[in-house]
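Quick one: structure tokens for this chain, please?
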Amino acid sequence: LASHNPALLINVSHNTLKLGYMTYMSDSKVAGFAYNRVFGARSAGAIVARYVDYGEFEGYDENNIFTGTFKAKDMEISAVYSYLLSDRWSGGVAAKFIYSKYESLSSIALGIDLGLNYFDEEKDLSASLVFKNLGAQVKAFEEKTEKMPFDIQLGITKRFANAPIRLSLTMNNLHK
């Protein structure tokens, strides 16, 4: 969850390592790495890497003439920091380096996610606010620079006493 809201990193145990790999639809492969470290009683940091290889594609020109095969991939490397603001509030920031390569085109972007989380342990209630993808492309695919997919999200989750269920609501695109 800390990859969705950097404020949630404060809840991850010291020296946690996450490795993941999955084959996905056709030739696609997804891999991930994360390492978390707690600093004192109130802060935590992590390094996160994600990689998506969409596989190999056949290329054709406007006359439907085969031009060869090509690959498409995305990569993100993030540094995440979370701080416990009080007994119930935590805040976090994730600085992201994003690289994409599709056929002969490539792009580089720098982004930041800002998160805030409220957690009431007695009521088992959590609420989060996240500002995702603040930043910009620093190298465009071609001549035209594109906007980052900015999003404001609000999420609430509540576990009910004496019931084995948890109800969650996530709202996104709140800036629209």
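The beta strands are 16-24, 28-39, 43-60, 66-84, 89-102, 105-120, 125-139, 151-159, 166-171.
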